[in-house]
Write a structure and sequence with these properties.
MetI-like fold, mainly alpha, 17 helices, single chain, 75% helix, 316 residues, flat
Amino acid sequence: MSPLSVALEWVVEYRPVWLRDRQIFRRRSIALVQRLLTYVVLADICFVFLIPVFYILSTSLKTAQDLTDPTIYWIPHSFHWFTYPLAFLSMAYIRSLSNSLWISVGSAVGQTIACGFIGYGFARLKFPGRDILFGLVLFTFMVPPQTIIVPLFILYKNLGWINTFNPFLGPAFYGHGLRGAIFVVIFRQFYRTLPWELEEAARVDGASAFGIWWRIMLPLAVPAIVVVFLFSVVWHWNDFFEPFIYLNRIEHFTLPMRLSVLSPTLNQVTGGQSSELFNEALVMAAVFLVILPPLSIYLFTQRYFIESVDRTGLVE
């Protein structure tokens, strides 16, 4: 050991106490400032995302007088809940909720199963043209659905699927549907992180490729399953374009579609008094009833959803 190294060690070991305390205080101050900055950024992000929800709730509880009063913006004089039962009846909420659940949950189940199987094939099996086919899968994600809606409508009409839920459920169980390509990519990336020894041990025991996926790989893919299922449910729930094309009868309308016919249905419910009752408060009450189911799902599954996003590397 050189004399210089010995001298440096002596200085570090026998440096004054006040100097060590000063350095500790400096490190703790930097950590505190970093934590405060993190909290400020998170608070700003929460404000951006939560301010529309607060506005919806505040406006839905206002009366007609509160809506016309320029001095009232956030907190009304008194809370009035009459807009919620009125919106509930005007939207035929139970029937519309059932339609939305059939489309969103049914399509999510189909996409989770089919995309999980397709993603396993692209990730773990070697076959001619695999990379070309995967490129075509990515290409389907880049094609806007509006550009192919006419041939799709003609196809589904010839199949007799118009005014049914088959245009949403059928493609989903074949690994396509709304944003199906990105779900294939999520499963493919997750399967590629699993060790190959699992498959080799299963093949030694005589398991087939489908048996390996069903019994070994799929149970291990719970994080990817949670991400795909929740994303699919939310995206199908909020979709307005495709249901508006394929569903023409009002009894088949989903909850978002019911918002477009809120005034006519309100007129039927109230017996011709829609002009007096139809206002911003009623619209906001209807909007809150539409977003309430996805919010409830997220509140109960946010822990698993965050863990799954972190494990699948979706944010990378």
